[in-house]
Q: What sequence folds into this?
C-alpha cells in the first residue's frame, strides 16, 4: 500500500502527519486486499480532515477497491 500526497496538500510536516495517520489507520482497519499494488491518492483537502473523517474516507476508498467489507 502506498500513499500519494502531493505538495498541494501542504508542507512536509503536514504531509508527513497525514502519512503517519494513514499508516496508523491501516493498522487499525487491517484491510483484506488481494495481491497487487495499491495507491491511495490524497487531495488538497485531506489536511482539513479530522482523524475520524480520514478513517471514513479511507474505508470508502478501500471498499471501492474491494479490500474492505
A:
Amino acid at each position: 500500500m502506498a500513499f500519494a500526497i502531493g505538495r498541494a496538500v501542504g508542507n512536509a510536516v503536514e504531509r508527513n502527519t497525514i502519512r503517519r495517520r494513514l499508516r496508523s489507520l491501516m493498522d487499525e482497519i487491517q484491510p483484506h486486499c488481494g495481491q497487487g499494488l495499491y495507491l491511495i491518492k490524497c487531495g488538497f483537502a485531506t489536511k482539513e480532515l479530522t482523524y475520524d473523517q480520514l478513517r471514513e474516507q479511507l474505508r470508502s476508498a478501500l471498499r471501492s477497491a474491494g479490500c474492505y467489507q
Notes: The chain has one domain: 2-64. The helical segments are 12-29, 51-64. The domain at 2-64 is CATH 3.30.230.10 (Ribosomal Protein S5; domain 2).
